[in-house]
Design goal:
globular, two-stranded antiparallel sheet, homodimer
């Protein structure tokens, strides 16, 4: 069975055998986009101190055909509680998902808004949430989805911000953009059955809330680089802008996940590493799947080992990402330092316990911390429908090859551009442009490039977060700063401050605020001098 | 009759009454794109030391529809006579017209290539020359023309340069982009009849060679700003990047033309200023047009005064642009300091001579310096066809409002965004996006913005050139430099060096070379340090 996913995200998607697609599974299955289909209660919209607005956005910024100027309504949220005209504007560059979830889970901005008298603006990303260029038909095909890409999204932000400042009569306000995570309000794991395809094909999809974190953070950095006349600076938290082409070793992501577990406990790492083979051996036995169904408390009998692998895989990868120092409910409710908690579970069994038993118990921490779940939905039937925007983006421009090395705790796997392209063609009818991102935005030798251009960017990364390996981890210039925390995880800085925050987290936020204050302190005198000339 | 053109370019286009368009003339007539129709001999392709290549270019860089990946062949020229692997690459970002004309008329690059051991690359702009995405149907409608815009062109350059460096195994070569003029090899004035439309509507089109100069130079600056990871620096000569929105006063262009003539001779300026009314008065008389036909040696009897106005207008505007210190043949063969020469002609008549007589004689310098022309084609019949790419670009994104003030030597006129948009809709079926360029590229408070981002750009401007008023005329930072020459004209620095060049021109080129050398001297050690890390 194909081992480790060799694709860009640890958010794997499995292709359901839908009538509208080939029955042979592919790289990019169609996850359940519709939360209702996942039979999970759609979490009620959080109560957040923002007003909702809609901006008439241009469909295609980069061609001038008659249809290019079609208007769709892009949602954005505003908090003006602390603001006055002329004061800074903090813009959160939205990503895949309902913008309310982002706003609800980026308490950091609410924490610092008073100090800066900042206007807070959260802009929903096109093709997500309510911001659908073609209404319910937005995901119909490559014809409609074709307009979903990062350059169109950045231009959306540029137009919206400019228009907003004009309408608020506050064109002199400095704008700072933020790319951070989006704390889910109970992420829903949606797993869809996939028959194995040779050389890797196990993917697991989480709901869009998880994807968001990735795209958002890179967008803020790219926005400052491409639109320095609109944003005076950017805070890009956990932004893997170097996870393209061969800038970052392809194995680094899964090596980092493995390192998190290994550092918690060598035994823990070894148990997980050895569990895949044990699972495979069991599934090959007569009644093996039945036993697995019992062991894993599957709501319905399992048909294949794939879903078990995916279920475990996701738990470990996501837990590494959200290895926060305090109790949190980012994607799932978890205790503080959940990687350590998982390893404690694994290590806590009597010495005769099987690896399968141990890893199931550990993963259950991720899925069932509340102990409310009676069974787990490891498999979904073939009625899942809908394409996820991130899958599209992954198949077009956001191509991030990933492999699993011998040192990782996952089964080894490789990545093939050719097979990847074939799968994307099969699924979406499009060919990826795997080197487009580095042509459009750069990345190679970034320290050389940005030393002589660009400025006012903070790249923050927590080393628990596997995405950090694709990030900027060293200062590039006096105004392009890398803030690295050994114990930080994915966008930890963007969470609301709590009384239990460790000192290093408080210090990280303090430094970010100080740097941003510096940009703003520089801006107003610059502006004054310019106005005089 | 509507006076001064209130539109962006001094290159005016007049709508021919074509069967496929409305018979009521509009802002944007359809000039004769086909040189053969203009009954001018198409100048034979110059002999230039470049090899021709074709690059398989992507049609649409910013959407991912199936048709977006359509390939067309983009022409580019290469001179590798002085180059070795690893040495710098100088790229000339092409613009509207056959790339050979550019290469033939940018002798500056050939002059400096040996010193830098530079590879010279001239890239043809999409939708011009041979680089037609839809072959002969490229100009058919907004459906095809929609792909003609500056962001697509910049992305073309990015992809091509990256690919070229890869194929030459010279990925470490520093790339410098150049935006300069394109010396025409005898620009052809093509005039097409236009019935007046209220509030301005006289336009005159020159062949594409003239338009080119404008677009090219801004593209180099924008390329360095958007793709600093591909070009380490840019020399943008006569680049009016501030001629958008209300950054530059709308009257500045025609005020600058007028200032050139006024400085040559106050009387000259006053004669030209007074000639329009005299012409109008004459044309209103019985047999007035017949007399004008004789005075202006029109090849065919004139039907309206418009073409006479346009003929004169163009001569004065273009002569100001190319007011070079030496004999030149940029758009038309002219003596050194042709503005002064024209004014000498105007002032040289006996005191009783009419203004009409004087201005005709002066303008003849532009059209007939060689004295070979027996008559002048002031009007063309309604059989002109074809759309010019620049007209399209002017109607979509390159919106540069221009007006004529009371102080100018042209009849006063205004600009109306509303009327402009209506005309563009009538002509091309598209609505302009008049503020898109400043959203996408910036421009407002550029000194504030680029002080904290960007770097390694030279903006050179000659103050004889009316386009200079929309350029960057002051240093912005230690590496964004403005080189201004009082006596310089349009892209004077890009012409080949001659023994007659004045000292200020030699000094201008010397400084440019020194600054570029500085970028390159910085680059190689930077690269070495990066490779070590």
């Amino acid at each position: 069975m194909a081992p480790c996913a060799s694709l860009l995200l640890p958010v794997f998607v499995i292709l359901a055998t839908l009538p509208i697609i080939q029955s042979v599974p592919t790289f990019f299955p169609r996850p359940s986009y519709d939360q209702s289909l996942a039979k999970q209660p759609k979490a009620s919209k959080p109560k957040i101190p923002y007003k909702t607005h809609y901006f008439p956005q241009v469909l295609d910024h980069f061609t001038f055909q008659p249809k290019s100027s079609k208007i769709f309504y892009q949602k954005y949220l505003v908090n003006s509680n602390y603001w006055h005209r002329g004061a800074p504007i903090f813009v959160y560059t939205g990503n895949e998902g309902d913008i309310e979830w982002f706003a609800a889970n980026t308490g950091f901005l609410l924490d610092i808004a008073p100090k800066f008298r900042a206007l807070l603006v959260f802009i929903e990303h096109r093709f997500y949430g309510e911001s659908m260029p073609f209404g319910n038909n937005s995901y119909k095909s490559a014809e409609t989805l074709g307009y979903l890409n990062s350059q169109q999204a950045l231009a959306d932000f540029a137009l919206l911000i400019r228009s907003l400042k004009h309408n608020l009569s506050s064109e002199a306000s400095p704008v700072v953009v933020f790319g951070g995570s989006y704390g889910g309000n109970g992420g829903t794991a949606v797993l869809i059955f996939l028959s194995p395809v040779k050389l890797v094909s196990l993917f697991l999809v989480f709901n869009e809330k998880v994807f968001s974190s990735l795209s958002l953070s890179v967008l803020a950095a790219w926005f400052r680089l491409k639109y320095p006349h609109i944003a005076i600076g950017a805070l890009a938290s956990s932004a893997p802008i170097l996870q393209f082409d061969d800038i970052t070793p392809w194995s680094s992501f899964y090596d980092a996940v493995s390192q998190d577990f290994k550092e918690a406990s060598l035994n823990c790492y070894e148990v997980i590493k050895g569990s895949w083979a044990e699972l495979e051996a069991l599934s090959a036995q007569k009644e093996g799947l039945a036993e697995l169904s019992r062991t894993f408390r599957a709501c319905q009998d399992l048909h294949s080992l794939d879903s078990v692998w995916e279920w475990l895989w996701s738990a470990f990868v996501y837990t590494a990402m959200v290895n926060y120092p305090t109790d949190a409910n980012f994607m799932m409710p978890l205790p503080a330092y959940p990687v350590q908690a998982m390893c404690k579970i694994i290590d806590g069994f009597p010495s005769g316990a099987s690896k399968i038993t141990r890893v199931f118990a550990a993963a259950s921490l991720y899925y069932n911390y509340s102990r409310a779940e009676k069974c787990f939905k490891l498999e979904h039937g073939p009625d899942a429908h809908g394409l996820h925007g991130w899958d599209w983006q992954a198949c077009t421009e956001m191509v991030m090859p990933m492999t699993c090395s011998e040192e990782s705790m996952f089964p080894t796997s490789s990545f093939s551009y050719k097979e990847f392209a074939e799968d994307c063609m099969r699924t979406f009818g499009v060919k990826p442009r795997p080197h487009w991102i580095t042509t459009e935005f750069g990345g190679k030798r970034i320290e050389l490039v940005l030393k002589r251009s660009g400025g006012n960017i903070i790249f923050s990364n927590g080393m628990q977060d596997p995405w950090s390996r694709g990030g900027v981890l060293k200062n590039i210039s006096s105004s392009i700063i890398a803030l690295v925390t050994e114990k930080g995880a994915h966008h930890v800085d963007f969470r609301s401050a709590t009384k239990d925050d460790p000192e290093w987290l408080k210090e990280l936020r303090r430094q970010e605020v100080e740097i941003i204050q510096g940009w703003i302190n520089q801006y107003y005198p610059d502006l004054k001098r310019t106005n005089k000339e």
